[in-house]
């Protein structure tokens, strides 16, 4: 205990010493001059990547996301200010390009936060009206297995392809009661949600992501951005392989890494595994006699329809623009807020007419819904600020310069290099759209036309989605955690091995394309996709066979142990005494009154429970 106190005191003294040094630097340097544009000494250097590395490393090590993100923000602001405390505080809070206040004053960001609150209110309403319980009861009659529950989440995720934010929050709200009944862990639910959000949107021609890619193509290049996007779809290995991976692990019932522990604990009844349960206060299902499955389905259908209509409305569909142009020019945040408003109004009228909620109960759901979304709102705010501070340090410029430096010498293997760089940049900054805007112009500069242009852009999109998919500071990852009601760090840690496997197979695929390019067989580049699919499925199948073999061996061993224990214990019992009352010795003894061996469908050992009774000599 004394050692802990001394260690804590030493840490605090060290922090005070660092603060004193920084204060001295601030007093000596004074306020930076307002003449000219201010530039940090670490601008566009490798140190510009330090803030996200600190934040991500601390989050994975400490399992605490808030202070980790804040530490990354402080480190970035301090680097930008060259050690000046006054400038550091102003940068962190009020900088126009990266400060927290400016991020929260951005209309697009605020729109996302408002939609989060609206969805939290809607989920609270669905729960209090009994719609969630009624839907779960209905689904339990039609969806009989864990595999069926997971595939249902996948199907709904694929169908909602217009926007990743909308996908994450809607799919989680609808399917959470179903997966809970079939004991699917919250980490697995969040992974399925995340894997059917951005990876689906990036290969859907009618989506907000297609619009982002189209707008990233330079206007003076003379290239049709939408036509190029269509050409990239079959070469977007990460998006397609992620869906293949998701379907394969579900059908083969194979899991690995931390996800395996979460899934086994979920089968035992613990959907969370770790103590962190940020949404537990909003988990209680309310069952009402007059509730119906339509009490959940109708509001969700109205939400989907109204959001889609609102998005194309913001894109000018009703003023003459085509459907595709309307999606390309739409504002996702404005459309989602409009759609959410319409849905809440409809739900109020519908529930009042159905008499499943009173007016007081309806109003009580408003603060409850807001409170349920405090955690994702805080994480999003800190993640946006960290991304802004990282951009101030010129991380994107550093990566772009590095790509340009190696582009000419590695033209044949540029798709593989672009994939790696895009994945790292998106992982470090938490944004895939920003990665598009930086790397696509560079790619077009190296390959102005032809098939290699489409392949290289596709590798850029694939890498950006890969990095965004697993980054703890990505808004899509945060939304998936919120949609699945999962501890954010758990979601990140459990899906990292899955993302890593798919990324490794993608690297092999882009390497094959590079080899074909080097030998002049670019026309056969499409063969890389089926080759990668076969490789990925083979790896997962081998892992599944390995798990089944281990499960059979473990089951046989446990049965042998059980047989041995029972033979020893029962043989030593005294005759004439009931089986559950046999004593060992003259005073007391232990007797096994039940012995249960549970094995899941994969043949894996799940739990071995022994219930013991202690009997005294007077029993």
Structure characterization notes:
The protein has 619 residues and is mostly helical. It is 69% helix and 4% strand. It is built from 27 helices and 2 strands. Strands 1-2 form a two-stranded antiparallel sheet. Strand 1 and strand 2 (605-615) form a beta hairpin. Helix 2 packs antiparallel against helix 3 (65-80), helix 3 (65-80) packs parallel to helix 20 (374-392) and helix 10 runs parallel beside helix 26. The longest helix is centred in the last third of the chain and has 44 residues, at 528-571. It is globular, with a radius of gyration of 28 Å. The protein starts with a helix and ends with a strand. 45% of the residues are buried. The model is unreliable at 573-619 (pLDDT under 50).
List descriptors:
single chain; about 625 residues; mainly alpha; two-stranded antiparallel sheet; 27 helices; about 70% helix; globular; disordered C terminus
């Amino acid at each position: 205990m004394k050692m802990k106190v001394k260690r804590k005191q030493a840490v605090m003294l060290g922090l005070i010493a660092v603060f004193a040094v920084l204060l001295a630097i601030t007093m000596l340097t004074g306020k930076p001059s307002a003449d000219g544009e201010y530039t940090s000494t670490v601008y566009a250097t490798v140190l510009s990547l330090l803030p996200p590395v600190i934040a991500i490393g601390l989050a994975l090590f400490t399992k605490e996301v808030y202070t980790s993100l804040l530490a990354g923000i402080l480190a970035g602001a301090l680097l930008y200010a060259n050690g000046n405390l006054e400038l550091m505080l102003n940068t962190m809070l009020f900088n126009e390009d990266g400060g927290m206040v400016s991020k929260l004053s951005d209309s697009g960001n605020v729109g996302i936060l408002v939609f989060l609150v609206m969805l939290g209110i809607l989920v609270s309403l669905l729960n209090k009206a009994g719609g969630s319980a009624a839907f779960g009861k209905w689904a339990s009659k039609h969806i009989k297995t864990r595999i069926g529950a997971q595939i249902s989440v996948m199907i709904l995720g694929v169908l909602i392809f217009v926007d990743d934010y909308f996908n994450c929050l809607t799919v989680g709200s609808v399917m959470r009661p179903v997966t809970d009944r079939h004991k699917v862990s919250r980490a697995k639910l969040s992974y399925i949600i995340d894997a059917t959000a951005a990876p689906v949107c990036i290969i859907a021609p009618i989506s907000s992501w297609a619009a982002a890619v189209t707008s990233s193509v330079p206007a003076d290049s003379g290239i049709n951005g939408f036509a190029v996007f269509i050409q990239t779809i079959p070469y977007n290995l990460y998006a397609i392989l992620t869906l293949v991976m998701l379907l394969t692990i579900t059908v083969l019932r194979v899991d690995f890494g931390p996800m395996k522990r979460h899934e086994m604990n979920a089968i035992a009844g613990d959907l969370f595994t770790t103590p962190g349960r940020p949404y537990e206060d909003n988990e209680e299902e309310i069952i009402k006699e007059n509730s119906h499955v339509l009490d959940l389905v109708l509001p969700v259908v109205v939400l989907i329809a109204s959001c889609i209509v609102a998005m194309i409305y913001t894109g000018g569909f009703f003023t003459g623009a085509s459907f595709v142009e309307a999606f390309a020019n739409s504002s996702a945040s404005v459309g989602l807020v409009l759609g959410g408003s319409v849905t809440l109004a409809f739900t109020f009228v519908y529930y009042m007419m159905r008499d499943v909620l009173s007016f007081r109960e309806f109003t009580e759901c408003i603060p409850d819904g807001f409170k349920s979304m405090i955690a994702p709102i805080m994480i999003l705010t800190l993640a946006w600020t960290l991304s802004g501070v990282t951009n101030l340090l010129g991380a994107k410029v550093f990566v772009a310069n590095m790509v340009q430096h190696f582009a000419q010498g590695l033209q044949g293997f540029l798709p593989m290099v672009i994939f790696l760089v895009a994945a790292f940049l998106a992982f470090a900054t938490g944004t895939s759209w920003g990665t598009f805007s930086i790397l696509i112009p560079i790619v077009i500069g190296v390959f102005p036309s032809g098939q290699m242009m489409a392949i290289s852009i596709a590798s850029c999109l694939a890498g950006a989605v890969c990095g965004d998919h697993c980054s703890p500071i990505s808004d899509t990852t945060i939304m998936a955690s919120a949609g699945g009601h999962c501890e954010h760090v758990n979601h990140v840690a459990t899906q990292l091995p899955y993302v890593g496997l798919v990324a490794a197979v993608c690297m092999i695929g882009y390497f094959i394309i590079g080899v074909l390019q080097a030998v002049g067989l670019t026309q056969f580049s499409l063969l890389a996709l089926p080759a990668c699919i076969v490789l990925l499925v083979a790896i997962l199948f081998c892992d599944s066979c390995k798990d089944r073999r281990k499960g059979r061996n473990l089951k046989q061993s446990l049965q042998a142990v059980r047989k041995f224990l029972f033979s020893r214990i029962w043989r030593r019992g005294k005759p004439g005494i009931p089986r559950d009352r046999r004593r060992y010795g003259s005073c007391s003894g232990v007797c096994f009154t039940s012995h249960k061996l549970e094995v899941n469908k994969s043949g894996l050992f799940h739990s071995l429970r022994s219930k013991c009774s202690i009997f005294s000599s007077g029993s």
